[in-house]
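Late entry, evening session. Most of the bench is empty. Finally got around to the prediction I had been postponing all week. Sequence below, unchanged from the version circulated by S.P.
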Amino acid sequence: MLSAFTARPIIELKPRDKSKIESILAYGNRVLVGLNTGSLRIYRVNETTEDDEQPARNGEQNGGDQPESQAPKVKPVDLLREEEKFSRRPVQQLAIIKEASILLSLSDSHVSVYDLQTYALQEKLERTKGATTFAVTSNIVKDPETGIPTIMSRLAVAVKRKIVLWTWQDMELTGDAAEITLVASVKSLTWATGTKIVAGMDPGFVMVNVENQEVQDIIKPGQLSEAGGTGGTRFGAVSSSGMGYMGMGSWVPKPLATRLQEGELLLAKDVNSLFIDADGNALDRRQVPWPSAPESLAYSYPYMLSLQPPAKGGLEVRNPDTLNLLQTIALPNANFLHVPQPNISLAHAGKGFLVGSDRCVWRMGAQDYESQIDELVVNGRFDEALSLLNMLEDTLLHDKEGRIREIMMLKAQALFELRKFREAMDLFTDAKAPPERVVALYPKSIAGDYSSTESVKDDESVVDEEETNGDKAVAENKEAPAPVQTIGRAMMGRLVGHQKVDSETASIRSSVKDTKDDAAETASIRGKTSETILPEKTLDGKDLKLAVHALQSYLAQCRVQIKRYIDIDGTLNEPLPQQSESQAEDYKPPFHHLIHTSAPLAQIDWAAELLKVARLVDTTLFRAYMLASPGLAGPLFRLPNFCEPEVVQEKLYETGRYADLIDFLHGKKLHREALELLAKFGKNESSKEGPETLQGPQRTVGYLQQLPPEMIDLILEFAEWPLRTDPKLGMEIFLADTENAETLPRHKVVDFLEKIDAKLAVKYLEHIIEELNDLTPEFHQKLVDLFLEKLRAHEFADDEEKARWRERLQEFLQTSTNYNTMRVFRQLPADDADYYEARAIVLSKMGNHKQALQIYVFDMKDYQKAEEYCNQTYLSMTQPAAPARSSSTAPATSPYDDEPSIYHVLLSLYLSPPHPHTSNWPPALDLLSRHGARLPANTTLDLVPPSLPVKDLESYFRGRIRGANSLMNEERIVARLRAVEKVEVEAAVLLGEEKVDAHGRHVPGGLNRRVVINEERHCAVCHKRFGGSAIRVYPDNSVVHSGCLRGSVGRKAAGWR
């Protein structure tokens, strides 16, 4: 049970005093006691401490003689005075209106007004004759006209069926008393607000508005009226459908009511109860499980109080939220209680309430709220602790948010020990528990080094021994099974700086079943402690899988939160703001709730701690997946994650998930380990038989293709064995159409491939030059050198292969322009027929066309290739001036062009060859017949010997004449086309484009178009009207003065009108 209050008697009537206490009133440090003799005693309350109550013990501890003037024991109260003739009858009720400095007393069925200072009778309110009870309230009200706040006090007196009302504004009584008549005698009055009062009668409760005198029945929902209608009956009504109490001598229980927290009231009659709001509407809450009808009700922040009948003499303290019994205080023959009005003491100071009997008055001293919460937590009553925290104001507690969060985590831990894993994880999520604390609840197979299950097993014998001895420390040992969760009794849950828990915290409270008697309820409360101690057996088997499934959802949510603050490389997404030394002591980043540490805030490396938490979450989630849901582990480590590589490698290797292991190593950028594993399985060097997908170089090649160019050394190291095993497949590492392959350091790749096989280097160089258009001269020269080395080595399977390599060399020499021609020419043997054409191509690149043609004509004797060479050279020379055309359609040069062409060089070699070669007429005549138009007549005829018949030159002359005619005809045609174009331009200027207006009429254009000049139109240059001045019209119809024409040059026409 909770020890929230401690009863301390402050007033006890002496045995010889025959009077009885009828009423009490406390305000300030005064306590007024009304007796059955009509006397009024005024006491002063002294604030005492333990030191004041035990002076002798203090003196002994100081070890010396104390002065004789040592202060005596301080009494709880001092009797200041006694008004023996205060009233002729018992003083049944007392109240004050402090603002008016008056004391109200109910005695002899009248309400009397006394002076609060002298206790002299001021007035006996005759209209209250027959009064049974009264109620007082004071509130601050703003004047609707001026807005000035005033204190409005009201007195409501129950006189049989009437309620008589008096009002004081500030210190003065205003107006006459008002009367409100009800349906039955009023037994109790309770102010709900400053203008509404709840009246309790035998037929039930009503809400009375004292301003408009409106009376509203308080209806309990779900009840049917006696007439069978759908309307509800008044709560507490005594009717044929309710309890008649006919067997009790017509005794009817007194209607009770008390005001709870702001805007809520509790009504009670017998053991029935009803919660209502300030407007009299019933709230959907269960009844208070009283074992018997209470004698009186009260509310002392934040608890609900009910006093049992004097025969039982017990004060029950309940939580108004959960309605659970928290404490029972035995007070012999106590029959009434008094809580100071909220307007006299602060709400939280109302805990110093009074309980009275006929002979004694007890003052209830309360523990501080921190101690009360600690006691509830130690007893395992987490719901009650959370409810109490939510009801208390933030200023009354140190770190209220942190306490709520800590208790929620302790409750979740207790649920976990009860094998309610899903509920526990949901509560951990709501509490934003640090993952380290949650993970520690699991065995080492899941939590690794964070596991605390071993320490639990070691402590079981100690716990059992303490249970046998009945020590209260049982709860402490059982509440904290792990060192991570262990918290001392006095400091239970006082964690600093946790994120605020929102209003939804109330939703975590577990429902408590209604109990039929107090014993059963008390037993259930005590039983909660023993239920949350330790599991009956270690977490394994089916329970472990269920717990792991629940953990997966918790960790998945943690991963989402962590990704908001940290990147995969361990850096924060948003840098933490710079803090001064004083600010750093209190600064907490938004992710602080994920970190479990007791170090001072200023000394915490938040980024490093968050990275540690991220690693813990991902590694634990991986272990959880591997245990309960192996199929979900793959997506986890294929995506960016913070898993510890050692843990994942060991687990995946043990389970034979080699492909997943490689994916994980790739994601963690542990490429060397992954490639070593791939090489082991690809070469069948592993002791374990790997899957077929890992056998051979295919997977290694695919892996190397994904590596960035910065890792070229690693790529080349592990690319060797695929290249030697399957060169075609291995070359895909360097030839693939990917960005990584295209951006590899090409010098290193070429050197690496050349060491393995020159063919591979040639293939790579051809790829980067022809497909990637690499113009680096070094690569071009390297490719030529490799071709020549291959040809000189004569390592060919047959002549066809050799011919293919020679053709590849010649084609490259022809197309490339970035190799060193002089160097290549020196490398080509002059007397080897295999290199004749290559030498000719290099000479052509060097501009030595005559030497190149000599190779074609004299060495190769291939006249067709010589003619093709001339065609290509001629077209390349004429291409910059005109588009290239084929030899059959190329235009002939001018008949008067005396400059010799490449064809002239070839013709000279045919007709005037160097020694010892002789003239070769057949190819020469073929050349003249096909390309005569490109051979100038004066130079060509000089080469022809006089003995050659003119008939043999017929084709040459015909070609020349046709070429000349073609040029002349072309010029004529162009001249005629230009004349037609000129006519069209002139027509456009004179006539323009004829347009059709909106009415379908043809509008002339050009110089025949019309331009309207009206009074609103002005010159675009000088902005003056035209009048009768000469004007000029532009093609866009803009108009300027003739004199302004020069100034208008260069101006935009868009602004002209």
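Two things to note before I forget:
The longest strand covers residues 131-142.
The chain is about 40% helix and 15% strand.
Will write this up properly tomorrow.
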